[in-house]
Design a protein that fits this description.
Blueprint: H1 2-28, H2 31-44, H3 54-74, H4 78-102, H5 119-138, H6 149-173, H7 188-191, E1 202-211, E2 214-218, E3 232-242, E4 256-257, H8 264-268, E5 273-279, H9 285-288, H10 291-302, E6 306-311, H11 314-320, E7 327-330, H12 333-339, E8 345-350, E9 353-359, H13 363-373
Helix pairs in contact: 1-3, 1-5, 2-3, 3-6, 4-5, 10-13
């Protein structure tokens, strides 16, 4: 019987540990994505003062998830890590439960954009994990380390170093695995369409009237039979009674000239090759405005390839527009943050097809490739 319980604990440790390692690795591939998800929660709670710290929270959390997963598998300091895991899963359960029952958060970001889960799936997953971690917590004194202390410490330090290096890399060179709808190989026009067999939202018109100081809502079918001048009409709204799944992967992509003209359709349906540089703002202008950039511009001009700079910073664009051989276009800042995790990011396009996508830090490599093809 004792051996049976020991084996059950071992299976639970491996399951919980591997799940935390997987979760941490997936999010470490795109730490900015997790930080944006944290900002979404903070904005719903009107806690905007935390927005400047979400990236730091994201980087630390991703390292900790992998660290905790490895510690649980090898059974290292389980009295400490069982407490930490229990507190963490209670916190995660609160977040996923809030997203599910409030309806204010569409996805929880548990596994990043690579494995999107609905709030219901995320909450169920966390409840299962909570039960398993409770089992580990109750039996924490019975779990002994399977490796020597010096080996455990070296392994955990190695994990910290690897995850930290991975996050530093993707912050400069884009995610290793791009799971966003703007990834290389996608057609942006297709991504702007609802999924196949999508079900639209079920909407009903609601009329709001005030009578005897009380405001009531009615549908067209439930309007009172005695509706007369004693009912004061307030407004009419469209109310979603059943949420559908007809939201396209790309919902708000639009490009405007500095003068306000919408050029989205003209550009995506041009059928020609062009390059877009997504720069959310010009805070990194000095880093990418260098000799490599100028050389790339010369190559594009020789090949008669149009170049656009897409930004949400209109004032910054107006300051530098005169010195750059590019057309400046405006785009929503949230869209740019989604499309381009690094500021700035190049998109090589053919019509609506994303032919290539790379960080400004990888431009020298593309220059080398272009030269070798000439």
């Amino acid at each position: 019987m004792a051996a049976y319980k020991k084996n059950i604990l071992l299976v639970i440790r491996w399951f919980v540990g591997l799940l935390f390692i997987f979760s941490g690795l997936v999010k470490a591939n795109d730490p900015l994505g997790l930080s944006y998800k944290m900002q979404e929660f903070f904005e719903v709670w009107n806690m905007y003062f935390f927005n400047d710290y979400t990236l730091s929270f994201s980087l630390i959390m991703n390292v900790f998830e992998v660290l905790a997963g490895v510690a649980v598998i090898i059974g290292w300091h389980m009295r400490l890590f069982s407490w930490l895991l229990l507190l963490l899963i209670i916190f995660f359960s609160f977040l996923t439960g809030y997203a599910l029952f409030s309806g204010k958060i569409k996805t929880c970001g548990c596994f990043g954009d690579c494995l999107p889960l609905t709030p219901a799936q995320s909450f169920t997953k966390d409840l299962i994990l909570l039960l398993l971690i409770l089992v580990l917590f109750v039996n924490r004194k019975k779990i002994l380390s399977s490796v020597k202390p010096v080996v455990a410490v070296c392994l955990l330090i190695f994990c910290i170093a690897v995850i930290s290096e991975l996050q530093a890399y993707v912050m400069k060179h884009l995610p290793v695995v791009d799971c966003l709808p703007y990834k290389k190989g996608n057609n942006l026009v297709q991504q702007m369409q609802p999924p196949p067999n999508a079900v639209p939202d079920s909407i009903v018109m609601v009329f709001r009237y005030k009578k005897n100081g009380e405001v009531k809502e009615y549908t067209a079918e439930t309007l009172p039979a005695d509706l007369d001048s004693t009912y004061e009409f307030i407004n009419r709204v469209d109310k979603v009674i059943r949420k559908g799944n007809a939201t396209p992967p790309i919902a708000d992509f639009a490009l405007f000239t500095l003068g306000g003209t919408d050029t989205t359709k003209d550009i995506l349906q041009s059928g020609s090759k062009y390059v877009m540089l997504f720069a959310k703002d010009f805070s990194t202008f000095d880093a990418w405005m260098n000799d490599d950039f100028k050389k790339y511009m010369q190559q594009l001009q020789r090949q008669q390839i149009h170049f656009y700079i897409i930004t949400a910073d209109k004032q910054g664009a107006e300051k530098v527009t005169g010195g750059l051989p590019a057309d400046f276009l405006l785009c929503d800042g949230t869209v740019i943050k989604t499309a381009a995790r690094v500021n700035p990011t190049y998109f090589v396009m053919h019509g609506a097809d994303v032919i290539d996508k790379f960080s400004y830090a990888d431009l020298p490599e593309r220059l080398h490739d272009d030269d070798s093809k000439q």
